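ok trying again, last paste got cut off:
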Amino acid sequence: MTSFAPTVRRSVVAIGSFVSLVLALLLGAAAPASAHATLLFTSPAADATVADSPKSLVLVFDQPVSLRGTSVRLEPSARLGTAALSRGNQAVTVPVSTTLAEGVHTVDWQVTARDGDIMTGDYQFAVGPRTVALASGQTTAAKDAVPTTVLRWLLFAALAIVLGEAAGRRLTVRVPATPARRPHSWALSVTLVGTAAALALTSLQLGDGSLSSLTSTRPGVLSLIEVAGFAVAAVALLARHRAWAVTSLGAVLVAEALRAHPQAEQSVVGPLLTFVHLTAAALWAGTLLHVLRTLAAWRGEHSPSRTLLLAYARLAAWLFTAVVVSGLISALLLVPLGDLATTTYGQVLLIKIALVAVVAGLALAARRRLRRAGRGSPRHPARAENGLLAVVLALSTTLTVLSVPADADRSLPFAPPLDGPVVPAGTRAGEIGISARAAASQLVIDLTAPQIGGSEKQSYGLKATLADPRGTRRALKLRGCGTGCFYTPVTWRNGTSRLTLTASAGDEWAGGRAGLAVIWPPRPDSALLREAVAAMRKTPSFTLHELVTSNTALGLGDLKQLPLTGKEFLASEPYGSGIAPVITRLPVENGHRRLALAYPAEHTQLDLTLDADGRILHEALTAPNHLVTRTFVYPKPDEGGHDH
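nice, full thing came through this time. structure:
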């Protein structure tokens, strides 16, 4: 026994050092979890009230989704059209074929996420002239979460037992004077259990679809690989080819790594982290189980038992380190520290961290007992360690059906859909065009600079301050939504709110400060635009005084005077047909009616001031590359057609 003392001391010192380091790192450790889709925005917005029945329902997710297994239902029941994908398969649009009655409507939705799991949720909105108080919010959850958790626990447990048994056998054969007694192999039985669990998970993912829908999608193919991996492993074990069985289960580990959350953050590093994490965790738990079963078979054989435990201790130290380091890096990729205590995912993760810390303590206790020959068996803490590892495994499978907390500061790939009527506004800061759209509880601002190369290469910066009608000022927290696009939630007060914007576009283009007025609530008035167009079309002649600038820092430009007819003018205007995507009426100013128009796809806004006859008196047009200010002078009837 004395010959083993130096080895024991070295092992215990190494394990103690690594446990101290690990416990410091555990605060950030996380398990891999499936990459679920999270509902970001809806139109109509969750808990919002819209004046008129919507023509469609739009659901925007944080990642591409599949139409396979997708369903959207309204309660009270309403006839809906066929769902369609857009915006990189992140937006689901469902036409509403009937007019919805006034009142509260609930949307129940279901989509297939990138990892193949079916996600479900619901939210409410109201239709009607009155504001309806809604507080239900929107929810996103994995469908069949409980059976999915149980099945994934069985799948992970099968991996751990088979891989751990293979590693444990290799440790056993290296023990001098190995006793002949060996525990009965569980590998074949648990491999069959793993096959059944993988099949059941594939069935849940398939839903009402056909087998061809599995083979045509990446998540479906990964699910089939897992089923095949377990099935081939079972056949290999029947043929007594354990090495083949371990190799085929490696395919299962690779499939799990390719469908987990980290791969959504880092396409190469993410799957590698998950593979290391899962492999190390399975070997750690599974090898300990096999060692404990071997010790039970070797009851009374003290020297071989101690040698086997020492060999496992050295292996476990490396495996534990791999689990914690890979988990720490995954956590840094996935979970903001502020979300650990405030989200379900973070809370489950904290419980898991606490249990892993307890496991580390039990492991250290078992290793210390190895130093004291005849002073207690290390089996008792080792058994408790193995039991807690089973609980940790259950928590890990629970994390796979929970959505990772969304990063509220992360840029969106595109602007969220805007609900209901929109108030447009536009201006220019230096050489940067500013296009703003205000909707219920939302504000989207687009910046455009003159383009030499591809617009996606241009970088933009924006700071915004809002002064509401009461004079209260606050800085807005902006979130990117594509190149030059910025989004923020805003609760608009009735009246005129003023935005102060500081825009920049790298070093090539002049930026600066600019102001915008947002007049709430919006008042759509397409009839007034048609009236203005009809009045201009009847105008035989007028003089247009025009200022054009591409850089407001240099002024409004040189004055030009152009004699025109109404038809000539309308032929060059975007609203010449009497139609605009966004129309809202502004408050009367000096007795004149006013309109604001917007063409979001072209980042163009116009403010029109009309006279009593509907003719345009003033126009301010903000476009991506210039600001145009126009004044219209009409001849007086008594001057024989000459300008006044």
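cool. Residues 46 and 75 are 14 Å apart (CA to CA). The first strand starts at residue 39 and ends at 43.
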